[in-house]
Design goal:
This protein is an alpha/beta fold. It has 12 helices and 15 strands. Strand 1, helix 1 and strand 2 form a beta-alpha-beta unit.
Length: about 350
């Protein structure tokens, strides 16, 4: 099977590349070639900027793919451009969307693929919803989208929604994950902000587990026109997540609970991802992905995954540095919170 990953060297796509190669697939990456250290010799690199349609068309000219997986579409026009590029040269286009597109809070904390898509808090999620609708051909109210005055062409798509997924080089937290920042702060004995009372339930998925589900969908015609979320089955509170990171570091965390609404008012850019996603308890029902990919069975607990991440940082000590943006936001919130508490108490 011939698979094209648009990107291929990122947090999730690297693990998906590994899984596809493990299954013996012929793997292509389409990217700008700026992360040569992340490329695998078994992978054929098509060097192009996906935002440059003409360059991308030139890079894929003469090729046909069983599946194309788009990790880098963040706006509906990105998907529209992809349809123009890949229509007729693939049997399956897979859009990587997001679980933050689901309406939260819902009437029930159990999330299935039938849960409505709505997020008034976070623009990132609303744009991902718009990306999906560029494929499903529907706008609000169910009106068919028309392009150039005609009915939209059939396009063989599958939608995949990851939640909070991490791999080596990530220390997951509610204020950022793609750095050593949270671990650095805990090791320094600094207070760590946790939204709400720290008891909302959250799901962290190791990229290697996600990859089994994603790659298992490729080449299956029964997945066309379908949407799937792919997450771990492990549910942890935010207090537990921070405690597990601290335990792996051999220290105790200094957790300070601050209401999500206050965080959103003081730091709107952080609040959007809390109110619209991370601070809301959700329980993902993975029944659908298991029906289509019987081999999907997440194996990496967060306790194991965080040890893998810390081992990666130990092997790359130059990356064990603070996260300035995280520290600035947490310090400002802590100053505001402690000041308010002094006035009350």
């Amino acid at each position: 099977m011939r698979v094209l990953f648009i990107g291929g060297t990122g947090n999730i796509s690297s693990a998906c590349t590994d899984e596809a190669l493990r299954r013996g697939y012929e793997v292509f990456h389409l990217n700008r070639g700026t992360r040569a250290e992340k490329e695998r010799p078994e992978v054929r690199l098509l060097r192009a900027d996906i935002r440059n349609s003409e360059a991308t068309k030139a890079a894929v000219r003469g090729l046909y793919f069983d599946s194309v997986v788009q990790f880098l579409a963040f706006r509906p026009e990105h998907v529209e451009a992809d349809i123009d590029i890949f229509d007729g040269i693939t049997d399956q286009y897979v859009l990587i969307s997001t679980c933050s597109a689901y309406k939260k809070p819902s009437l029930t904390p159990v999330i299935t693929e039938e849960t409505p898509l709505e997020n008034p808090f976070w623009e990132y999620s609303r744009l991902k919803i718009a990306c999906e609708r560029a494929l499903t051909g529907r706008m609000d109210g169910g009106r068919l989208v028309r392009s150039r005055g005609v009915q939209p062409r059939a396009f063989p798509y599958t939608i995949v929604r990851p939640s909070h997924t991490y791999d080596d080089g990530w220390i997951p937290g509610c204020f950022g994950s793609a750095s050593y920042g949270l671990a650095w702060r805990i090791l320094q004995g600094l207070e760590v902000v946790v939204p709400g009372d720290g008891q909302s339930l959250w799901t962290l998925t190791h990229a290697s587990d996600f990859a089994v589900g994603l790659v298992g969908l490729l080449g299956n015609p029964d997945t066309l026109g379908e949407a799937f979320h792919i997450t771990s089955d492990e549910r942890l509170t935010w207090d537990a997540i921070n405690a597990i990171v601290a335990q792996a570091l051999g220290v105790q965390p200094k957790i300070v609970h601050i209401p999500s609404d206050l965080i959103a008012k003081a730091r709107p850019e952080r609040g959007a991802g809390l109110l619209g996603d991370k601070a809301v308890s959700v329980l993902f029902d993975n029944s659908k992905i298991r029906r289509f990919v019987p081999g999907f069975a997440p194996r990496v607990s967060f306790a194991e995954g965080i040890h893998r991440s810390l081992a990666w940082f130990d092997a790359h000590p130059e990356r064990k540095v603070p996260d300035p943006a995280m520290n600035a936001d947490m310090d400002a919130l802590l100053e505001l919170w402690h000041g308010a508490m002094e006035k009350i108490l």
